[in-house]
Prior knowledge:
The protein has 551 residues and is of the alpha/beta class. The chain has 17 helices and 20 strands. It has an 8-stranded parallel beta sheet with strand order 11-10-9-5-2-1-13-12. It has a 5-stranded antiparallel beta sheet with strand order 14-15-16-20-18. Strands 6-8-7 form a 3-stranded antiparallel beta sheet, with no helix packed on it.
Amino acid sequence: MEKIWWKEAVGYQIYPRSFMDSNGDGVGDLNGIREKLPYLKELGVDFIWINPVYESPNVDNGYDISHYQEILAEFGTMADFDQLLVEAHQLGIKVIMDLVINHTSDQHEWFTEAKKSKENPYRDYYIWRDGTDGKPPSDWQAIFGGSVWTYEETTDQYYFHAFAKEQPDLNWENHQLKQDVFAMISWWLDKGIDGFRIDAISHIKKDAFHLPADLENIAARYQNITGIGDYLKELKQVFDSYDIMTVGEASGVTAEEAEDWAGHDGYFDMIFEFEHIGLWKKQQDKQFDIRSFKQALSRWQYALDGKGWNALYMENHDVPRSVSVFGCDGEYREISAKALAMMYFFLQGTPFIYQGQELGMTNMKFSSIDQIDALDSKHIYQELLNQGKSEKEALTVISQTTRDNARTPMQWDASTYGGFSESEPWLVVNPNTQQINAAEQLEQPDSVLHFYQQLIRLRKESQALVYGHFEELLSEDEQLYVYLRSAEEEQILVLVNLSSESADYQLPKAIKQLDKEWQLLLSNLPKAASQLEMTGTLAPFEARAYRFKGK
Ligand code: NOJ
């Protein structure tokens, strides 16, 4: 079997603004990341993915880039970046950058030029249309709310934006634009970075603009549109001349299309699918539906088993904390954080840990809308008020759903600002940093942090956990996620109770002949049976993995 570094690797996502502030201005920075490389090394990760650190007016925290080849001053300098790259590499940690090429900032020179006149050479780098009867060209809605069209007076036309109006979409039909984008990509790769996470890439092609909006899924007209593969193949050609990893952010891509996107010869090495996490979930959720969750994960596992590769994740900077959403942030916080960890980590694919997830960091209880930074959340808050909700009701919804839950500063220790900064951070620190923080967990042998460390170590030592096939067992069970990972000489059985009730299990007869030879590999409770039993009970959020060595 061909061994590939990014298949064996574990990634760690860094949201630089909230990771570590080295200069006391309340904003995390590149030198802060540098300071914490030894922590990441000890955790055992092989690469970091850093969210955008490029020059940006920060309307969408760096996802509105005004210069692709400059570092935002708040984060440091290009020299700081180069130093970070050197030091990370010295420690054997690779560096993946965020590539935002669906849109730029409205402050990018391409756009400030494009706005000037219809004849400007950069005009066609963006998407412009005439209005109809003084109204926007279509009724399509943007992901961050409002119309996708913004009127530009100078030339009396509208430009298109899938996200905020300050994030005009690039026109992928323009040859010169693509050449400029590809040159920028090569510039970064020639610097020696190890790959990209490619932002919002399923949006680069749009449907015919005169079509009416799709009310079910507002992004449907500009998400994973037929023909997008042509652009993605061109992009892949640029990546193909480097030994790098690519992970596309692919909202709207279904498991049926998985192979095109993340197959052996897919557009990317792997993609972040959105099915198990829920696409841009904005409203308060119903009860966590374990069956659908399992089905979504297993669908992607089967779709790519032997055919491609998955990116595995439970959190990122856009969604609330997994322990609060899928686990329990009360009495079962630690055990549920560990259960979720084992559940996704041992699937087939490259696991990504989002900063703080390894501590079981939770959602924040925001006490006022003034504590919220995310522009989409502010927009929804306003909409809720318009619908007649009280401020308190609206805040409750926002507090549970905002992506700022993931963006509160990293909890390094129990001090006032969580050891993240010496001055007041740009976003409020979760007061539970007093109980949940890295310093304390480094001292406790059974902490969530040490559990992650073990998961990483075990995965590295196991052929089955990296390359083994996936097979789900007890798929109808409404509490347990049970699956088998099988390589030639090793099998691993993972049993996870995803519910807060105890759960009985009875394993299928098919694996009975292997009874008694399965040894406990890892458990999140101290007293799990050391040998696999064919029937038994798992405590709330109990998770166990058993190993069978031999053919
Ligand atoms: C997806 C990113 O993860 C998110 O943070 C951002 O707001 C949008 N793309 C727009 O770039």
